[in-house]
Structure formats: structure tokens, C-alpha cells
Please model this.
Amino acid sequence: MLLRVLLITVLIYLCQCRPLDSDADAKIVKYENDVRPDGYKFEYETDNGIRHKEEGTLKKVGEVVTFSVNGTYITVYPDQDLILKVTYVADENGYRPIVSFGDIKTTNRINSALIATLQGGLR
Model:
């Protein structure tokens, strides 16, 4: 009897520790949303590393009132050690993205001056 309870407990534990099957299983860990008469701002982050931040504002171009949107979103591909970052502007001149890729291993480096300070080297 004790062996069965132990075995069932271990199986339940292992099922809970399984990796996420897909981005559909990701949980939102941060969410902010602010809607104003002259625009909006939102930001969210999920537990699998996806982040999106965007701000939209009304602006006057000559006699015409237009809408301008600035934002950034980041997607992490851990199986490839890759980060995709897209920064964009969308306004009367169209959608203009700037796409960059980074290596997870190099983007998580700690600044050497910070390490020296923590070790008491720089004051």
C-alpha cells in the first residue's frame, strides 16, 4: 500500500515537472493596460520569455490628425538559444520594423565592471 502511494506521488510530481508543450501553455506574469483619450499604452510578459510593449498616441500632421504607434516585442527560442527582438513604428509613413537576433548565451552576460565592483575592485 505504501509503495503504491509513493509511486502515485512520484508520477504526479513528474507530470507537474514536464516542460510546457507549446506557447499556448504559457502564463501571463505581467500585464499593464492604460487607455487614455489621446492614446493607449500596454505591456505584457509571459513565463516563456515573450514580451510586448506598445504605445499609441494621436498626433496632428498638418490639418490631419493621425495615430502613431511605437512598440517592441521579444520572442525567445530556447531550443535554438535565440532571441528575436522587433522594434517598430507605425504612423502616416507606414509600418517600419527593425528586426534583430541575439544569442541567449551572449545576451545574458554580466558587465565585467559590475563583477569587479562586486568583488571590491572598482570604487
Q: What stands out?
A: Residues 2-16 form the longest helix (15 residues). The CA atoms of residues 61 and 92 lie 9 Å apart. The two ends are 63 Å apart (CA to CA).
